[in-house]
Amino acid sequence: MATLLIKGGRVIDPSQTRDGAADVLIEEGHIAAVDTAIPVNGARVLDVSGKIVAPGLVDLHTHLRQPGREDKETIETGCRAARRGGFTTICAMPNTTPAMDQRGIVDFVHQEAERLGLVSVRTIGAITKGRQGRELTDFSELFDAGCIALSDDGNPVADGFLMRRALEYAKVFDRPLIQHAEDPALVAGGVMHEGLVSTTLGLRGIPSEAESIMVARDIALAELTGGWVHVAHLSSAQSVELIRQAKRRGVHVTCEVTPHHLALTHEAVGEFDTRAKVNPPLRTEKDRASLVEGLRDGTIDCIATDHAPHTDWEKEADFDAAPFGISGLETALAVCVEALITTKVLTWSQLIEKLATAPARIADLRAGTLAVGASADLVVIDPSAHWTVEPQRFVSKGRHSPFAGRVVTGAVERVCYRGVESEP
Ligand code: DOR
Fold it and tell me: Could you give the residue numbers annotated as active site?
């Protein structure tokens, strides 16, 4: 493999507290050196002056749909979408058909991803068999197969006794349970946030308490068991405050927020726009501002996409009938730039920390870093490039985005995975 020298960029690597002009030398698929003015010495040179060079982004929350719903997404299209978005590691959620609740399915996903070689795909196994919320899976088998965490995402583990036992069991492996925090009884068939917009549209609402009550319960169970709860896709101000307090008490709880919850409110539903139908729902400006503040003050550990592709025919149904979820991988970075950098909430270094370093830490992966010796997984970003979100041009099979038509800032220019560098 030829030596590659990525020259003249602004290298941002929060794992090494580095932010400044530097070159990156890649040899045999690994980072060989990061320094100022590395001599060329016969290497192929990629000139990236004016660009940011950062560790490849890491997504803790991707729905790949394969096996079972290849009409929505395949491992291949999902990996290509990840690359487009600057992600070199994605963690696949278990709500496939069948669910990722045993070794055979986990092995299949890993092997297919390895065959493709586009990005690193890690897996999140199911907490309960078939994600039915009744019987625990074999945690030992799933962690042994390489799962980085377990979750019933798409569904909560609603039964408190089962969640207690699951936390005790997962504690043995020092790995988190990722909770899709919602109380099904309070969701009660709701399709969007319960508030002024749902009332105006005559749609059944989901109160914020459907989430925060479950967050409060899981914090209590993490406290009781000493286990680790990671709360997925936080959406409400109450949840942020509960986690802030719990962290102060030393409870082992971490959490993530999606780009769309940072950027949008329930107003985005407009006139029954299913492209803004997500679960948990987009909520009020107060909630959105609390999520931004939670991210800034460290209450929220990282950003995760909840990339949830669906077919056109499903998403173009009535608001009530359409599935929850949007295609998120290809817009995540630019949406975060708009919500967090342009508004001066975070610096670039802090944003890369939230999109790469922190999720890698939670997943316990040697990713999200440009440390010498690490796999050469990195992204070159043009921080000032403007582009228009055109979902019909997504490489994901999911072509639905509430950001369609928006002119955004920040483009992924090149992606390098295991030392192989190309256009995204
Ligand atoms: O919007 C969502 N879509 N939220 C989830 O929790 C599940 C996901 C999906 O799988 O479609």
Answer: 306
